[in-house]
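Onboarding guide, step 5: your first structure request.
Type a short instruction followed by the sequence, for example:

Predict the 3D structure of this protein.
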Amino acid sequence: MPPIAIPAVVKLALGAIGAAAVVHWVVKEVRRINEELDRLNAAPVIEPVAREALPTLRRDPHSGEWRLM
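The system replies with structure tokens like these:
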């Protein structure tokens, strides 16, 4: 079976088509991610939670176990 000879011009054309497809995909992904980030930045900010109202872990001096207090 003789080897298949592909001319250099055809190899370059296939390489260029493949590179263009990759660049097209990357551009679409970058635009999609930027739109998502812009949407998240435009969302209303959630009010911060008062840290004093949250329970904290403290070590029980008698047993040495950590408990919510």
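Each response can be followed by summary notes, for example: The chain has one helix and two strands.
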